[in-house]
Amino acid sequence: xxxxxxxxxxxxxxxxxxxxxxxxxxxxxxxxxxxxxxxxxxxxxxxxxxxxxxxxxxxxxxxxxxxxxxxxxxxxxxxxxxxxxxxxxxxxxxxxxxxxxxxxxxxxxxxxxxxxxxxxxxxxx
Length: 125
Hints:
Structural class: alpha+beta
């Protein structure tokens, strides 16, 4: 291998492995709300206890309120942590509370689930 190719190869491998080290947290702030990177509003559920590591929204509840799932390479960062759901999947949590989307929110910025049954609330960081 030519000597001039070695630095390029080392740099390329370093860049690839750095990208694998941890994935980006799939949320951002939009206005005064926490949203997915696609702009969909995120919610917490009052029946979830912060810091318990457990989601109380399973089965039909999780169909209406899809959990924001963490992927295999994702790692906690700042106020964002990861819990393990009853089915073994991993879910993102904000300040210890699992986070969800609402199936009736169709467009980015929709917040139709805010204060639903006084149990669901838009996350306002």
